[in-house]
């Protein structure tokens, strides 16, 4: 019983960690894309 609870809790915490990492990665990628776009716009002008 206790082992099952610990397992489910560990799985949940790992899930939230991976979600946070994924969100952080997506945010960084979006920032990079935005910087690249603004850079190309500057060079074209």
Describe the model.
With 45 residues, the protein is mostly helical. It has one domain. 96% of the residues lie in helices and 0% in strands. The protein has one helix at 2-44.
How much beta, percentage-wise?
A: under 5%
Number of strands: 0
The profile of the biggest β sheet is: none
In round numbers, the mean pLDDT is 83
Distance between the termini: 66 Å
Order of SSEs, N→C? H
How many structural domains? 1
What gross morphology would you assign?
A: rod-shaped
Pick out the low-confidence regions: none
Helix content: over 70%
Number of helices: 1
Structural class: mainly alpha
**Rg computed from alpha carbons, rounded to a whole number of angstroms:** 20 Å
Key descriptive features of the protein:
45 residues; 1 helix; mainly alpha
Topology overview:
Elements: H1 2-44
Short description:
About 95% of the residues lie in helices and about 0% in strands. It has 1 helix and no strands.
